[in-house]
Amino acid sequence: MKTKVAILGIVAALAAGGVATAWLDGTGPFAKSDKGNTTGVASDGNHAVASADSRFVTLDKLIVMLHTPNAARAHYLALDLVFQTDAKKEKQVKEQLPLLRSTAYHALSGFSVEDIRGMDVDQLSSVLQKAYVEVYGGTGAVPFYSVQVDKQMLE
Fold it and tell me: Which N-terminal residues, if any, form the signal peptide (predicted)?
C-alpha cells in the first residue's frame, strides 16, 4: 500500500512539474501565440486582450437623447467609453476624442429605448466599433483596437 501511495505521489509531482513548465514556457495549451493577428494586441475571438503596451483612453459622460416617438418624456443614454490603443497611437486617440464623441452620438441617437434595452454591452460596443470603422474608412485606419463600455445608464 505504501508503495502505491509513493508511486502516485511521484506521478502527481511529475505531472505538476510538467504543467508548471509548460505554463512558464508558454507552450502547449498555455501558448500565448495569436497567429494571424496583425494589430499587435492579443485577441480572445471577440475582444482585444490587454498587453503590456496597451493604453486606455476614456471618453466620459457621453449623453445621447434616444429616439422616442409618442413618448410622454424624453429618454437618454449616458455612457463612459474606453478606447484600447497602444503607446504609439495614444496621443492620436486623445486628440480625436471630439470626433469619437460625435461618431458615438450619431451612431446611437437613432435607437429607441427598447432597442438599447434589448442590447447587451457587447452588442453596444459592436455598434460603436462598426461606426468608427465606417468613419475612419476601414479597420486598419482606426487608431484603437477596441471600444468598451465602462459605464451605462438608461433613463
Answer: 1-22
